[in-house]
């Protein structure tokens, strides 16, 4: 789950032709499309940016749980992670530091299959909180933007 590259070497490149919302994404040897839904003016040729964000968290969650269960030799046979994103009012969030305005909220449901005990299931949910993408999203993020051409 490491996502570090050498200096000057982009890990992900996103390109669009400027005439639509559709974007070609290159991530290593993989290529796929992101787009907005038709209702938002896109062509629905691929997942929207928030769906991609949720997919990253879901994939990392499932991989982290799987890695831990394998190490412990626990009988995990299938992991399903379902995620949704919404905006909520800060004053409605009992566990949030921010008290004004709207906040992003991600709901994550984890379904674990296999002959796991209650304690094993509970521990795997705790491990889900430690996935690297979860930690990134729940920490302060500093994004540095550079213009490549003028």
**Assembly level:** single chain
| Overall mean pLDDT | 89
Strand order of the largest sheet: 1-2-3
Order of helices and strands: EEEHEEHH
What ranges have pLDDT less than 50 throughout 5 or more consecutive residues?
Answer: none
Distance between the termini: 35 Å
In short:
By secondary structure, the protein is an alpha+beta fold. The protein has helices spanning 49-72, 118-128, 132-137, and strands spanning 12-15, 23-27, 30-34, 76-89, 102-114.
Please give a structural write-up.
The protein has 150 residues and is α+β, with helices and mostly antiparallel strands. It has helices spanning 49-72, 118-128, 132-137; strands at 12-15, 23-27, 30-34, 76-89, 102-114. A 3-stranded antiparallel β-sheet has the order 1-2-3, with no helix packed on it. Helix 1 crosses helix 2 (118-128). The longest helix has 24 residues, at 49-72. It is globular, with a radius of gyration of 18 Å. The chain starts with 11 loop residues before the first strand and ends in a 13-residue tail after the last helix. The mean pLDDT is 89.
Q: Which key features would you list for this structure?
A:
alpha+beta; 27% helix
Question: Secondary structure elements and their pairing?
Answer:
Layout lengths: L11 E4 L7 E5 L2 E5 L14 H24 L3 E14 L12 E13 L3 H11 L3 H6 L13
Antiparallel strand pairs: 1-2, 2-3, 4-5
Helix pairs in contact: 1-2
């Amino acid at each position: 789950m490491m996502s570090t590259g050498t200096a000057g070497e982009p890990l992900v490149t996103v390109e669009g032709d400027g005439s639509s919302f559709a974007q070609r994404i290159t991530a290593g040897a993989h290529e796929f499309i992101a787009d907005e839904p038709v209702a938002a003016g896109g062509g629905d040729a691929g997942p929207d940016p928030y769906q991609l964000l949720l997919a990253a968290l879901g994939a990392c969650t499932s991989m982290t749980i799987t890695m831990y269960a394998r190490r412990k030799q626990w009988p995990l046979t299938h992991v399903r992670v379902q995620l949704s994103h919404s905006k909520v009012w800060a004053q409605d969030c009992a566990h949030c530091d921010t008290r004004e305005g709207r906040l992003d909220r991600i709901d994550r449901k984890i379904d674990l299959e296999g002959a796991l005990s209650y304690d094993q299931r509970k521990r795997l949910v705790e491990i889900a909180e430690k996935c690297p993408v979860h930690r990134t999203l729940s920490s302060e993020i500093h994004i540095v933007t550079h213009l490549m051409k003028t």
